[in-house]
Amino acid sequence: MEIDAQSETVKSRFARVYGSAGEAPRVMGILKAFWPLLVICLLLGYLIRAALPFPFLSLSQLGWALILLAVAGVVLLALGDRRLGNYLKGAKGEEWVARELAFLPATFTVFNGIRMPDGQYNFDHILLGPSGIFVVETKNWSGHVAFSDGRVQVDEKEIKRSPLQQVKGEAAELDAFLQAQGHAGVSIQTVLCFLGSQLEEPISNVNGVVVCDGASLTDVLTGELNEPVDPVLLEAIEHSLMPLVG
User: Fold this and answer.
1) b (16+ CB within 10 A) / e for 96-112
2) Which of 32, 113, 191, 222 has its CA 20 to 30 A from that of 97?
3) pTM of the model
4) At 40, is the pLDDT very low, low, confident or very high (cuts 50, 70, 90)?
């Protein structure tokens, strides 16, 4: 009983955490990596049906078809393995950030890996605290990250799907959900956190999005310059988001 009481005391010192980080990229990674197996199985079944019991493919045709199918399978699986590696790397980044957020003070509430009803985005992290309401998007990328005219480049290669637009879209979707719940006029701050990347500055503002590295994330979220939020409003928003936790 004493151990349980001590455990509860320790928990009460830190942020309340809901949801599990990294689940969405892991599931998506597996689906996108191994869908070629389904295609290969379907084609293999078709070839077997074409050969038996009344073949309309000769043995040589069947042999060539199987060879081509095997080559295509190897190529597709190799590409799938690379995709899976990228998704798993993203999942590890989300888990790292989630651990950092879990040690914020007890005045904060963290939601990991949730999705709005009929929403477009998987939210890495939503944070409620006295210093604001934040949408945090994590990118576990390697290389030098630079921004120019709203475009994002990694090692001088432009990223087609801009994470700046992504996190802004997430904030807009969260705002629409909160308005539907009766929380109109809520100010939502967007944060783009890079892990394993080289940024020009540890903290910067790019087109209204706070961009930071992992070491600076806590400073961004607890900064004294952030506009304070009414605790009653934070509690109401927390109750609105809790049903979205899987």
Assistant:
1) bbbebbbebeeebbbbb
2) 32
3) 0.77
4) low
